[in-house]
Structures are given as structure tokens and as C-alpha cells.
Design brief:
about 260 residues, 6-stranded parallel sheet, 6 strands
Amino acid sequence: MPDTAHTDWHDLRAPNAWLLMLEGRAPWEYAALLASLPWMKKLPHGDGHPVLVFPGLGANDLTTAPLRALLESLGYATQPWGQGFNFGPRAGVLEQAKADLQALHRRHHRKVSLIGWSLGGIYARELAKECPELARCVVTLGTPFTGHPRATNAWRFFEMVSGHTSNDADLMAQIRTAPPVPTTSIYSKSDGVVAWRCSVNEPSPLAENIEVQASHIGLGVNPIALYALADRLAQPDGDWQPFEPKGARRWFYKAPERP
């Protein structure tokens, strides 16, 4: 697992123009998902537990529909966040997300897995910290939960639509701490929006990082990323084991390394 203890967060910069241009490959990632669906549907089926899915900054539930459809086909009970476009933690947003988590837990009488894409992953992590007794696991996709707040190409848009500053040291210190439940960060070093080191968990028995080749915009439809996500959700409750790129997985996932 990458060692982030010696990383100087203030040295991190947003991805360069070349990586940002590579975000144009997202439609090809979606096409790859469609082509791989017969294979993806042969993944181990889930146990029916509920999954709450949060979209990224400026996105809505339509963007997570392919992800949720795949998980539904694998036997999970998914729920979109249902708050329209994600324009940041404006008044009432986090309160509604917490109420949704509590309602899902009451309805299914089971812990809820929390999935968040980009900014949505911040919501997932913070909810799991606030309500660890309700959260089964957290999986984030390209979420900038550490590093300098402005080491992304989206911070200006975030400030414009949310009304919050992106340069809050105290808030980032809080966000950087991993939840007390199994937590997986799926990230890409070729992410053109978020500096990849901003998506790396510090070493912990319950926190891990999985590197994939993907764009930021395409992470939620990338078949390699979704395979890893489905594998994580299939871990037995109370018997979580870190992801291991063994066997055929070594062709698609790199072994953990130091940044």
C-alpha cells in the first residue's frame, strides 16, 4: 500500500493539460463496459445488502445509472442519492444524505455500503465516520480526500457552485482521516481532474488503494474499475480482506506501490 507519510501535500499540483485532454476517452470506457457486460454479469453475486451511490461534482444520478444497473444485476439493492445535481455540501445536503442512510438501514435491517464518485466519495467517507454502525464499507472513485485542496482541475467550479472555499486546512485534516470501516479508494494515475496522490489512503488495516487505468470522468463506467468495486462489495460483512492482484488480475491491476 502506498506510504503517504512522507508526501508533501503542498507540492501537489493539478493534473497537466495532457492528462486533462485524455479525459476525452471516457466514451470509449463506457463502450468497453457495454462490450464486457456478459463477462461482468458473471461476477460473484451480492448478498442483497443495500448500496447508496453518490455522484461527482456537477453530476446527477444519471451518471451513476450504469454502475447501479450492474450492481442491481449482481443482486444488490441500490439507491441513488436523489438530490439532483451535486453542487457541493450546500444547506441540507449532508443532512438529507444521513437521513437516506438511516432510512435504508431501517428498511433492509442491514448495514449499507457507501459508494462515491469524485466529490461524492467525500460524502460517503464522512457519513461512514458519523454513522459507522450503519456503514458496511466505503468505496470511492477518484475522490480527492487528501492532498492540497486545489490539486484538482475542478476547484474553481466547486467554489463557484457550492459557495464554499476549497482551501480550508481544518476541513481537509478532517476529510483526510479514513472512516473506521473497510475503505477502498479506486484511483488512476492518468486522472485528468484530480491529482492521483489526493486519492491515496494512508496505510491502515481497514483502508486500501486500487490503481486502475481510467479517466476521471470514466471511472464510474470503466469495466476494470467496476470489477474491483464489485469485488469489494462482495466481501463478507465482518470478514473484509484487502484486494489482491493475483492470477489473471495481475494483467489489469498493479501490485501496491509507494508513490
